[in-house]
Amino acid sequence: MKNILKISLVSACIALSLSSCQSDLTSLNNDPKHPSVLPSENLLATALYQSSYYMDSPSVNFNNYRFFTQQWAETQYPDETQYNLITRNQPRNHFNRMYVYSINNIKQAKANLKNEVETEDIRINKLATLEIEEIFIWENIVDTYGDVPYSEAFKPDEILNPKYDDAKTIYVDLIKRINDVIATIDPAVNGYSGDLIYSGDMKKWIKFANSVKLRLGINLADVDPALSKATVESAVLGGVISSDIEAYKFKYDGNTFSNPVFDNLVASNRNDFLPTELVINTMSSLSDPRMEIWFSKVGGVYKGGVFGDLNDPYTNFSQLTSYFRSPTAASNLLSYTEVAFLKAEAAARGYSVGGTAAELYAAAVTASMQENGVSPADTASYLAANPYNEIDWKQSIGVQAWIAMFNKGFACWNFTRRLDNPVLVNPPKSNLSSVPYRMPYSDQEYVLNGVNVNAAASKIGGDKATTKLFWDIF
Q1: Domain-located, residue 285
Q2: For the segment 445-462, what is each residue's pLDDT rounded down to a tens digit?
Q3: Where does the secretion signal sit in this chain (predicted)?
């Protein structure tokens, strides 16, 4: 068998990527309307779209984060809420979208940027934008799978079968990369004017980078408290997302790009996604005013779907309102609300982040209420009825963050794994022995990079969805 057949999917797809193809035609035959080398800005746009859409997609074929957190139920085809991750190859599909369609385009953009005419200060800021976006995608990959190809990935001319790096080692390197790249940025100079997140505003990219660093730091809290504390405090001191207008949002125009929830609930006419009983019952017990904005009523009451089982027809349950169904709704992948809850958690852990846990808890709940259009009076009433509980702070912050992260699947999954609140019960017909703590590796890696993926699976204790990540030790 030729060696090319043994190439890892990561390397194979990169080697074949059209974005890196070079034309061997003479300059007389060049078509200026169809360049052989794409501008780095175009490659960035592709990576931003692919990563944002597929991190946020509720499709049963991809990340399944909303099912891992038991916030969405299915009424017709319950395989995904029974944690079947084989039939539809979700691990493979998400792996490909993040590696091949997202990071590969960032890597190529970095290479192409070197040959573009640009002033040095703008070039440095553009390179920083690409680096921060790449780090953000890596964080999603590591927190989805654990150990993954990292240091040897994206080197198809040198390494055909990249090793799987230790997840904590990747974490440490990502934190270093964030520190290094922030130091290069001139916030008074723009980056990519056409970037689809911040339109070249490097002050916002710095805040976003620090917010990713905050995420990484909090996740380390139980496994490496000293590094966690230093990382979190440094991130907050450097300046994190502090308002909704600074949040990392991919905005859809409803024509060229449509919001993935719209695509899956409206355009696909899929009438079987519902808020779960756990969501409805929890929010009802707290008299949560967001319910009126998010969900419809059935017979004058809210009724959640049964998670992991076929039940009554779709129309017998509360449904997601038009609030979530707009084709132009943004994918809010690192929200101000999330950052506020991360700071509240940091304070509860004894970190110095600019306020007490009670103060930051109230600020986080308020941020969620504002984000969802709840009035100040209703917000005040909610906080009075549901104050911060210092004795059981993991339950207090965990449940409120879980509610606030509704429809923000990946962010929500990090909170539930780290804080173990609310308590998620494995459904009776589950394909697993517990709720998922990670996504298994792509099945194609076992064909194309078998030695390394098998070594990784053995190292982490088995390539199972029930194997916990290195930072999820409780």
Answers
A1: yes
A2: 999 999 999 999 999 999
A3: 1-22
Amino acid occupying residue 221 = A
Give me the torsion for CA of 253, 254, 257, 260, rounded to 10°: 120
- CB neighbours of 232 closer than 8 A, spacing ≥ 6? 214, 217, 218, 342, 346, 351, 353
Residues 438 and 388 in one domain: no
Q: Looking at the structure, do residues 113 and 173 belong to the same domain, yes or no?
A: yes
Residue 158's nearest CA partner among 1, 2, 24, 10 is: 10
Q: In Å, what is the CA distance from 358 to each residue of 68, 340, 362?
A: 28, 12, 6
Whether the Cβ atoms of residue 192 and residue 200 lie closer than 8 Å to each other = yes
**What is the rounded distance in angstroms from the CA atom of residue 376 to the CA atom of residue 59?**
35
**Which residue, 418, 354, 356, 420, is CA-closest to 388?**
356
The tokens of 390 are what? 């210092």
Residue 24 inside a domain? The answer is no
**CA-to-CA separations, 113 to 135, 178, 213, in angstroms, rounded:** 18, 20, 25
- Domain, as residue range, for 214: 3-16+39-251+330-334+408-460
pTM: 0.93
- What value does the mean pLDDT of the chain take? 93
Confidence of residue 30 (pLDDT cuts 50, 70, 90): low
Provide the token pair at 278: 């756990």
Q: Are residues 270 and 379 in the same domain?
A: no
pLDDT in tens, 249-307: 999 999 999 999 999 999 998 898 999 999 999 999 999 999 999 999 999 999 999 99
Alpha helices in 220-289 (DSSP H): 225-238, 260-262, 277-285
